[in-house]
Specification:
Elements (H helix, E strand, L loop, with lengths): L6 E7 L3 H8 L12 E7 L5 E9 L5 E8 H9 L8 E4 L10 H10 L33 H9 L5 E8 L8 E5 L2 E11 L5 E8 H5 L5 E3 L2 E7 L14
Antiparallel strand pairs: 1-4, 1-5, 2-3, 3-4, 6-9, 6-11, 7-8, 8-9, 10-11
């Protein structure tokens, strides 16, 4: 998958701008002070990932929004949620975004960072995409909140993001991760290593990740799997951490 041609840099003004973002996204934003920023996620009613954005508040009260999502797409998404709110959306995007360099992509993968169109996709929820820390479970209702809360309450997150490596050329993503011919996950990112082989990220059955299962493949190529550090939602009860 290619990077979006134009990533979003939006400026929101009006008395309801921050409250809109707070009520439709996963993060608590009403207490965000000027000069600081906080990442948040926009999900559908099933808790599936649509967009990720970094929110900031300027000294004049304007709200900044940065995202890998194409600017027009994110602005249209926000506009669909504006009814009687006093909000103006201004596109301040700077133009085309180049494809990340090989080293940048390897660094992102090593860090377990999610990328739009790869781990940030409707196929996954935030817990599967490695973005649990961008979810606040104690802030009240928002789109997808019920589904995301239920996954934690009933310990029903079935897949997890893991780092993988393989030999040969980096596969085209997405690609099925298999075990004995059965699909058990999806390779979402892959980048060639300078010394040969490739490194990637994959969303895989949680049990297989916790067991560091070794008999996994992508396109017949054996994978070495490495679990990523655990991330927890904000406001998660101590008993669930």
């Amino acid at each position: 998958m290619e990077n979006p041609l134009e990533a979003a840099t939006l400026r929101l003004t009006g008395r309801d701008a921050l409250s809109l973002l707070h009520r439709i996204s996963t993060q608590a934003l009403l207490d965000l002070p000027p000069g600081e920023e906080r990442a948040t996620l926009f999900c559908d009613f099933r808790g599936r990932l649509l967009h990720r954005a970094v929110v900031s508040v300027a000294e004049d009260g304007a709200i900044g929004l940065r995202s890998e999502t194409p600017a027009g797409e994110l602005a249209a998404f926000l506009d669909r949620h504006i009814f009687r709110d006093e909000i103006t959306i201004e596109d301040r995007s700077g133009g085309a975004v180049p494809e990340p360099s090989g080293e940048d992509e390897r660094a992102r993968i090593r860090a377990g960072g999610a990328r739009h169109g790869h781990e940030i996709a409707e196929a996954f929820n935030p817990y599967e995409g490695g973005l649990a820390a961008d979810v606040h479970l104690d802030k009240g209702c928002y789109t997808g909140q019920e589904a995301l809360q239920r996954l934690i309450t009933y310990s029903s997150v079935r897949r997890e993001l893991a780092r993988v490596t393989g030999a040969g050329a980096a596969p085209t993503v997405p690609a099925d991760v298999t075990r004995a011919g059965e699909k058990v996950g999806v390779l979402t990112s892959a980048a060639p290593e300078e010394a040969g082989g490739w490194i990637g990220l994959a969303v895989i059955r949680k049990q297989l990740v916790s067991e560091a299962t070794r008999d996994l493949e992508v396109g017949g190529v054996a994978l070495t799997l490495e679990p990523l550090p655990a991330a927890c939602p904000v406001g998660l009860p101590a008993a669930k951490q």
